[in-house]
Specification:
By secondary structure, this protein is mainly α. The chain has a single domain (5-137), classed as Arc Repressor Mutant, subunit A (Orthogonal Bundle), CATH 1.10.10. 49% of the residues lie in helices and 5% in strands. The protein is built from seven helices and two strands, in the order αααββαααα. A two-stranded antiparallel ribbon has the order 1-2. A hairpin with a 5-residue loop joins β1 (56-59) and β2 (65-68). α1 (5-20) crosses α3 and α2 packs across α3. The protein is elongated and about 55 Å long. The model is unreliable at 138-143 (pLDDT under 50).
Length: 146
C-alpha cells in the first residue's frame, strides 16, 4: 500500500502546477524538474501520460509547457494511481507474490483486507483539489509537499 515513484512524481507535479498556475498558465518541463528535483526524462514520460488523459494540458514551442485543465482538481487519487500503472498492486497479497485470494486467505488476510478497503476508499474519495483546499487537515504545509 505504498506509492510508486511515478505516482508520487505525478501527484507532486500536479499539485505544483495547480498552485503556480495563477501566475503562469504553462510551466516548462525543465523548470518543473528543477524545482521539484525530479529527473527530467522520467518526468517527461509522466507528464505526457497525464496530458494524454486530459489531467494536464501541454503545448509545444517557446511559450509552451504544462498546465492544469478543468479536470485536474476533480481527479481522484485512485485515477492518478491507475494512470501511473500502480493499480495492480492494490490487490496484492501481503505475504505472497500474487493477488489476494479470499478463498485461500493468508495469515494476514483478515487484518489487511480492512486496511485495504479503507485505503482504497480514501484514494477514491480524495481529489487533487481537496489536497489543496484542506491543508489544515494534514500536518504538513502545502508548500512542503513539493
Amino acid at each position: 500500500m505504498f506509492f510508486s515513484k511515478s505516482f508520487r512524481y505525478a501527484l507532486r507535479t500536479t499539485l505544483y502546477l495547480a498552485v503556480i498556475t495563477d501566475s503562469k498558465p504553462l510551466i516548462r518541463l525543465e523548470e518543473i524538474a528543477a524545482k521539484l528535483d525530479i529527473p527530467r526524462h522520467f518526468l517527461g514520460k509522466i507528464l505526457k501520460k497525464l496530458a494524454k488523459e486530459g489531467i494536464l494540458v501541454s503545448a509545444k514551442g517557446p511559450s509552451g509547457g504544462f498546465g492544469i485543465t478543468d479536470k485536474t482538481l476533480g481527479t481522484p487519487l485512485m485515477k492518478l494511481m491507475e494512470m501511473m500503472g500502480q493499480s495492480e498492486n492494490a490487490e496484492a497479497c501481503a505475504l505472497l507474490q500474487q493477488p489476494c485470494n479470499p478463498e485461500k486467505p493468508c495469515a494476514l488476510h483478515c487484518h489487511v483486507e480492512s486496511l485495504r478497503n479503507k485505503w482504497n476508499s480514501m484514494l477514491a474519495e480524495t481529489t487533487i483539489g481537496s489536497l489543496l483546499t484542506q491543508p489544515e487537515k494534514v500536518d504538513l504545509p502545502v508548500a512542503n509537499v513539493f
